[in-house]
Design a protein that fits this description.
It is a single chain. By secondary structure, this protein is an all-alpha fold. It has helices at 2-17, 21-27, 31-40, 44-52, 56-86, 100-112, 140-177, 190-202, 206-223, 235-245, 254-266, 273-289. The chain contains twelve helices and no strands. Helix 11 (254-266) runs antiparallel to helix 12. The longest helix has 38 residues, at 140-177. The chain is rod-shaped and about 140 Å long. The relative contact order is 0.07.
Length: 294
């Protein structure tokens, strides 16, 4: 009994959703459709009269007849609903556990089907929260989230790359600051350092060329008896020993060459070929006449 009553209410909801005969009559696209609606509602006289004449008065009579028919139809629906309430099977605001599918169908039908010719359908509103998903389209919100994740991952990877490079450079700098050259480089003769300087200059590696020429200057000072070359000492320690020895001609700018090397090799700043030429001139000066005669 409970299911039958709910089913009856569903049928009434469906009929209500489709509108009244008067609405159908006014929404008809042709006179033939209007006549068919009149005959469907049992208004044969009005149908014949409207079919045989184009007098607007006959159309008005047909609409009045349909309006009366609609009032009777509405009264019948109200009586059916009242009877269902009296039986205790329909409680407003209370969901029926066994027939929830029927109630949901009635609500959906009422939202999707317009009740009159000029009435617009109610737009569908999601109640579960905001969403950027468009009907029939991709999930834009999810796509944007994926793009953000990719951008963050790329930024994190770039930061890790920079940190790794900085650590590598720091380690290299620390190792070189422990001494001017390593044990293997100490085995190279003076001529090889000069050849390497020329090769680096041709390749545009001015920083490396400056280092080779400065090491050649220190090795030349050692060969000329000005100051011993000690690979584990820094450039400034070599400068202090050279100046304190008093054996280097004061016209030779060994301080300038030491500053250029320090700025280029440890500070990664160089004027290019100009700095290379100045350190080379210092080397030539030490080689050709850098020793003071006592």
């Amino acid at each position: 009994m409970r299911f039958a009553t709910t089913f009856s209410l569903l049928c009434l909801g469906l009929v209500t959703a489709f509108g009244s005969p008067l609405d159908d009559f006014r929404a008809a696209k042709s006179k033939e459709e209007q006549v068919a609606i009149l005959r469907r509602e049992g208004l044969t006289t009005e149908a014949d009269r409207w079919q045989e004449s184009d007098n607007p008065a006959n159309q008005s009579d047909a609409e009045i007849a349909l309006m009366s028919q609609s009032e009777k139809w509405t009264s019948d629906v109200s009586q059916e609903v009242k009877a269902a309430k009296d039986q205790g099977e329909f409680v407003p605001g209370k969901e029926l556990s066994d027939d929830s599918w029927a109630q949901d169908a009635m609500r959906r039908m009422g939202r999707l089907i317009p009740r009159s010719k000029g009435e617009k359908r109610e737009p569908r509103i999601e109640r579960d929260g905001p969403s950027m998903t468009t009907y029939g389209g991709p999930d834009i919100g999810g796509f944007v989230v994926y793009l953000i994740y990719i951008a963050l991952a790329a930024a994190l990877g770039y930061v890790i790359f920079l940190l790794g490079k900085q650590i590598q450079l720091s380690r290299k700098r620390v190792s070189t600051m422990d001494g001017l050259i390593d044990e293997e480089e100490a085995m190279r003769p003076l001529d090889e350092w000069l050849q390497m300087a020329d090769q680096f200059e041709r390749e545009g590696k001015y920083r490396e060329a400056i280092r080779c020429l400065y090491v050649a200057c220190l090795m030349q000072c050692d060969a000329r008896g000005i100051a011993e070359f000690r690979r584990m000492e820094t450039n400034w320690e070599h400068l202090r020993r050279i100046q304190s020895s008093g054996k280097l001609n004061s016209s030779i700018d060994i301080y300038g060459a030491t500053s250029i090397f320090d700025r280029a090799w440890y500070g990664y700043l160089t004027k290019g070929r100009e700095d290379v030429d100045m350190v080379r001139q210092t080397y030539v000066a030490i080689r050709d006449g850098g020793v003071l005669v006592a």
